[in-house]
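Hi support team,

I've been running sequence recovery on a batch of backbones for a student project. Most finish fine, but this one hangs at about 90% for roughly twenty minutes before it completes. I'm not sure whether the input is malformed or the queue is just slow. I've pasted the C-alpha cells below so you can try to reproduce it. Let me know if you need the job ID as well.

Thanks,
M.K.
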C-alpha cells in the first residue's frame, strides 16, 4: 500500500469530520467526529513527520463545510524573462499567496505583487486554474485551487519585506531553485507558453 493512498484516506477522513462537525447536533456524534479528526491528524503526522499538534493547527482548526483554499500566482514578464521573488529560505516563487476572504482573485493578486515585489500591476489574462495535488508536492491535507494570472507592470520597484528578500527576472533556461510546493518547473514553463501564445486559452483541471 502506497503512502499516498494512506494520505488520501487521512485527508478524506479530515473532510468528513469537519463537515460532520458543521452539521451535527447530537453531543455523542460530535465526540465521534472530533475523534475521527484526531485520527486523521495522527495519520498525516506519521506520513509527513510533522508533529501532530502542528498538523492540528494547520489542517484541523477550521469550521464549516470544507472547501478548497485559493492560491493566486502572478506571471510577470520583461524581455522574455519571468519575475520571481526570493523567499527567506532561499527558494524562489512567483509572487502570490492565499486569497483573502474580503478580496477577489484579481484584487488579491494585485495586493500580493505589491507586497512581495513592490510592483503595481494589472491583470491581463488567466493562464490556468490548477488542482494543486495534481501538480505540486508535498501533498497537503486540504484541497488547494491554484490560479495563475499573467500581469503587466504599471510601476513600482522592489523593497525587501517580511516575506521576500530579492526579486529578479529569469530566462526559461536559467531558472533558480524553486519553492516547489508553490510553483514548479512545469508551471513556470506553462506561464512562458501562455506569454508567447497570443491565442492562449485558460487551462482548467
Amino acid at each position: 500500500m502506497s503512502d499516498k493512498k494512506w494520505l488520501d484516506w487521512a485527508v478524506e477522513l479530515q473532510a468528513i469530520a469537519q463537515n460532520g462537525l458543521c452539521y451535527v447536533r447530537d453531543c455523542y456524534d460530535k465526540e465521534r467526529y472530533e475523534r475521527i479528526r484526531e485520527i486523521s491528524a495522527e495519520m498525516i503526522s506519521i506520513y509527513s513527520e510533522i508533529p501532530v499538534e502542528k498538523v492540528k493547527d494547520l489542517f484541523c482548526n477550521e469550521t464549516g463545510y470544507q472547501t478548497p483554499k485559493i492560491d493566486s500566482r502572478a506571471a510577470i514578464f520583461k524581455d522574455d524573462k519571468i519575475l520571481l521573488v526570493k523567499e527567506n529560505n532561499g527558494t524562489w516563487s512567483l509572487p502570490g499567496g492565499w486569497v483573502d476572504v474580503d478580496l477577489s482573485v484579481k484584487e488579491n493578486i494585485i495586493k500580493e505583487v505589491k507586497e512581495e515585489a513592490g510592483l503595481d500591476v494589472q491583470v491581463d489574462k488567466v493562464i490556468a486554474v490548477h488542482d494543486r495535488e495534481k501538480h505540486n508536492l508535498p501533498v497537503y491535507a486540504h484541497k488547494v485551487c491554484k490560479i495563475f494570472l499573467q500581469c503587466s507592470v504599471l510601476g513600482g520597484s522592489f523593497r525587501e519585506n517580511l516575506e521576500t528578500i530579492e526579486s529578479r527576472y529569469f530566462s526559461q533556461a536559467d531558472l533558480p531553485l524553486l519553492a516547489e510546493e508553490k510553483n514548479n518547473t512545469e508551471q513556470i514553463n506553462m506561464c512562458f507558453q501562455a506569454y508567447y501564445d497570443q491565442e492562449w486559452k485558460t487551462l482548467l483541471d
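--
Follow-up from support: It reproduced on our side and the slowdown came from queue contention, not your input. Residues 38 and 56 are 8 Å apart (CA to CA). No action needed from you.
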